[in-house]
Amino acid sequence: MGQARQPRRAQALDGELGAAVARAQQGDEAAFAVAYRIVQPGLLGFLHGIVGDDAEDVASDAWLEISRDLGRFKGDGAGFRGWTATIARHRALDHLRRRRVRPRAGGTEQDVLDLPGPHDTHDQALESLSTERALELVRRLPRDQAEAVLLRVVVGLDGPASARVLGKRPGAVRTAAHRGLKRLACQLGLDSAADAGVTDETSHALGEST
User: Whole-prediction pTM value?
Assistant: First the structure.
């Protein structure tokens, strides 16, 4: 499953992303396409965790706003990923309010597993054996835990950036992510691990970068 390693791949491309955004702000459409290619897989996965099958439509609305307000953005590649995640989350919550549907208790959709990735079919099949169940379990987490885990695992943001997206203190987001990952670890049979190692082991199973 290619999506499992998307956060590490996205972070490795943050230098390229920052340069592409800078060129896009000067009107380079090809550079904007590069930024879209780097950011979209994780962003779409995050939106699937909030609005399910409507993720594509919400992502389109988010990218319209991103392109419109691109000139206002200031920051590097990692900052751009956080900024786009914030916009996407706002559009997702607006979408749910229009439908008068509460955000689900959290988690991701199985469609996250189908996002394109850099590995061939054989590698994807092998990786899905260890990650598919973990991603399925995310949907059962409380919303605050699920969003924290999704931002760390699917979008690939660090703790402070995730906190900015959610409008919470970094400590609160770290706690939510830790509790969510610890709960997942228990459900994945890692509950005998030492408390300090739970987050690392579960994050590895989910593909989160540290």
Answer: 0.68
